[in-house]
Design a protein that fits this description.
The complex is a heterodimer of chains A (368) and B (324). Chain A has ten helices and 14 strands. Chain A is elongated and about 65 Å long. Chain A has two domains: 153 residues, Rossmann fold; 134 residues, Response regulator (Rossmann fold, 3-Layer(aba) Sandwich), CATH 3.40.50. By secondary structure, chain A is of the alpha/beta class. Helices cover 39% and strands 17% of the residues of chain A. In chain A, strands 2-1-3-4-5-13-12-11 form an eight-stranded mixed beta sheet, sandwiched between helices. Chain A has a six-stranded mixed beta sheet with strand order 7-6-8-9-10-14, with helices on both faces. In chain A, α2 packs across α10, α3 runs parallel beside α4 and α7 crosses α8. Chain B has a single domain, classed as ABC transporter involved in vitamin B12 uptake, BtuC (Orthogonal Bundle), CATH 1.10.3470. Helix content of chain B is 73%, strand content 0%. The longest helix of chain B has 26 residues. The chains are: A alpha/beta (368), B mainly alpha (324).
């Protein structure tokens, strides 16, 4: 009896599941997509009124020396060391900014609020932040605005009215284009590709996959999507899932997209251990340090993310422009030093630009 | 098992079936999966895929051996997933800090044995339920790991450290470990006094004491042994990939406990075999792989496992009611 029950359960589970399998790129959400142009033309920004906050009675800071504090999610990790370096680079280039980075050693919103509060009390002209929580950080940022302090976010946003501007590191359609273009270049226009993601319902990953499907259909119509598998953010599960994909599709599989910074190195490891380097391309979102071994062995050619040094640099440039009054609500672009003119999107966000692709030539310069 | 022993009139086959009933069910399920999925896509039966199935989950089977012993003794350990994460991180840290490789392998295992002997001592002498003690341990290990590593990964591991990637005679070393440890543990449970005392303590602690067994010492010993298996599992887990993620693998303890239970270890203690738990761990790996081959969402794996637990526990309860 028990035998029967068990067999029935396994069988039932497998059968009802098969019926659910859909044909589109699984793992994407069903929100509208906006694929970018196949060449490098940037998307036209939809007009949206300014929805950021405004500091109360801010003194005239035009051209004057200002003190700025940068409070990232946490300090002491490679990623925010890199943004901090970008901020310092920009401050040095500007010459009239005294910038420093200070913040919690753990990504803890309560600690971050305390840091910001203390700097408001000690008196600064500008605050840069990467929020640990978009809502919880809002009151202390509004307090800063009410004291006439300029507030600009980067990397992780707050609610819009709690800061003036936010530097957005990458848009979903931009990441999607970079991933799909690199895959087509490495694995061929008609490559069969599979995706290893966290879960089908993780918001960012679902958005990226939906944009990738839309962009591939528009610009690389022969690319053949085979399957999306879930691997949570688990290293070993990601490896097992990627290995199973390789075993399942054999020579039909030419490329694997890794949608998380866990899935991408684990997929590269699966390809390496299967002896398929050069036969199966791995393109994905990942941090450079995790990918260096595979890039060094030529098993992975492109790792897509943004450049955190540029992100910090842009945030500092934006803050200076706000303090100087050269960036006003309603502007469509802002000058950001060596990065050129950056585009204003979504009312009060500034887009860093196209994502950054780490390759064998440049990956050694990054440590995060 | 008792039923079979007490009814000498039944045939040998029947005795065998009732002694290893659950193991046979699990084995048949594995065979059925291979036949069904292999017929749909012959690549499922390829050497590489079978190797992946066995090697990728061998560490779960090994951890389930220790877990089975703990459950047989009437206890449970919900901290084993966190412990494996900590072991992996310690091993990786030692390996990249230029310690000899054998130190990087053995020190974490000793650490695991000590931690679990401590847990066992608390459980045995304070009589705090093991689920409470190990829940506390889970938080300590999880929190300690995140604080100590700040989420940084360990990479650049030396190649000679990667024991799970070695393939003696063409078979992944993790599979050798799984087979050898399962056989050793099965023999140990069946033929040593200590092994049999585990069943006795789990079945009825006071009866065991009356029979001259020291239940406290048995419980500490069982937890320490469980630490040994968790330690070996942790080393294999750590050496599977080029990087060690300094976080606790999600739901690992549940998968391990599930393997023990579906393998036929009674959640009430006193009965079960480690052959069953190893087969169950292999079954999970087969199902996980089969879901991808059949284009089924991995969410079904959890649902199927949940149903299997309920069915197994229910069957165990019914059997016990019938026996008493």
């Amino acid at each position: 009896m028990k035998k029967l029950t068990l067999a029935a359960i396994v069988g039932l589970g497998l059968m009802s599941g098969s019926a659910l399998a859909a044909s589109a790129w699984t793992g994407g959400d069903d929100q509208p997509t906006s694929p970018l142009a196949c060449d490098a033309t940037p998307a036209a920004a939809a007009a949206k009124p300014y929805d950021g906050g405004v500091p109360t009675n801010a003194p005239d800071r035009k051209g004057k020396k200002i003190t700025v504090v940068d409070v990232p999610k946490l300090i002491g990790i490679g990623y925010f060391n890199a943004t901090s370096k970008g901020i310092a680079d920009a401050a040095k280039e500007l010459g009239n900014v005294d910038a420093k980075t200070d913040g919690p050693t753990k990504a803890n919103i309560d600690d971050q609020i305390t840091f910001i509060d203390n700097y408001i009390t000690s008196g600064v002209d500008g605050i840069l932040f990467a929020a640990n929580d978009p809502v919880a950080i809002a009151p202390v940022l509004k307090k800063a605005l009410s004291k006439g302090i300029n507030v600009v976010g980067y990397d992780a946003n707050s609610t819009p009215d709690a800061r003036q501007w936010f530097v957005n590191q990458a848009q979903f359609n931009g990441i999607a284009k970079a991933l799909v273009d690199n895959m087509a270049k490495e694995a061929g226009e008609d490559a069969g590709v599979a995706i290893v993601t966290s879960t089908f319902t993780t918001p960012n990953q679902a958005r990226w996959i939906a944009e990738m499907a839309a962009y591939a259909e528009k610009c690389h119509p022969k690319m053949k999507w085979l399957e999306t598998v879930e691997a949570q953010e688990d290293n070993n599960l990601s490896f097992n899932q990627a290995t199973t994909l390789i075993n399942k599709y054999g020579d039909d599989l030419k490329g694997i997209f890794g949608m998380t910074s866990v899935a991408t190195p684990a997929s590269a490891e699966a390809v390496t251990q299967a002896g398929k380097c050069g036969k199966i391309a791995v393109v994905g979102l990942a941090t450079p340090n995790a990918m260096k071994p595979y890039v060094a062995k030529d098993c992975v050619k492109s790792v897509v993310l943004w450049n955190p040094v540029d992100l910090g640099y842009a945030a500092m440039m934006v803050l200076r422009a706000v303090a100087d009054g050269t960036l006003q609500p309603g502007a469509t672009t802002v000058k950001a030093g060596k990065l050129g003119d950056l585009q204003v999107i979504n009312g009060s966000e500034i887009l860093l630009g196209a994502p950054y692709t780490f390759t064998k030539d440049n990956i050694g310069q990054f440590d995060f | 098992m008792t039923a079979a022993v007490l009814s000498p009139g039944r045939s040998n086959l029947h005795r065998f079936l009732s002694g290893y009933g659950q193991e046979i069910v699990v084995l048949l399920a594995i065979v059925a999966l291979f036949v069904v999925v292999g017929a749909t896509n012959h690549r499922f039966l390829s050497n590489t895929n079978i190797n992946s199935i066995f090697a990728g989950n061998a560490y779960i089977a090994i951890a389930a051996i220790g877990m089975s012993m703990v459950i047989m003794a009437g206890h449970i350990d919900v901290s084993v997933g966190a412990l494996i994460g900590v072991i992996a991180t310690i091993a990786g840290t030692l390996a990249v800090s230029d310690y000899p490789i054998w130190v990087a392998w053995l020190v974490p295992i000793l650490f695991a044995i000590m931690v679990n002997a401590g847990v066992g001592t608390l459980v045995a002498y304070t009589r705090i339920p093991s689920i409470v003690v190990t829940l506390g341990m889970l938080s300590i290990l999880k929190g300690g790991l995140i604080s100590a590593t700040a989420g940084e990964w360990i990479s650049n591991l030396p190649p000679e450290f990667m024991i799970a990637q070695m393939r003696p005679f063409g078979i992944p070393s993790a599979v050798w470990f799984m087979v050898a440890l399962t056989i050793l543990a099965a023999l140990f449970l069946r033929y040593t006094d200590f092994g049999r005392s585990i069943y006795a303590v789990g079945g009825n602690m006071e009866a065991a004491r009356a029979a001259g067994i020291n239940p406290e010492r048995t419980v500490i010993g069982v937890f320490a042994l469980h630490g040994l298996f968790a330690g070996i599992a942790g080393i294999l887990f750590a050496t599977q990939l080029q990087v060690i993620q300094s976080t606790v693998p999600p739901n690992l303890e549940l998968t391990i406990i599930t393997a023990s239970v579906i393998g036929g270890v009674s959640i009430l203690g006193g009965t079960g075999t480690v052959i069953g738990s190893t087969l169950a761990a292999i079954l999970f790996a087969c199902i996980g792989s089969a879901l991808i081959f059949l284009n089924v969402s991995a969410y079904w794996l959890r649902a199927v496992l949940g149903l299997m637990i309920l069915a197994t526990v229910l069957a165990d309860m019914i059997r016990r009611r019938r026996d008493t």
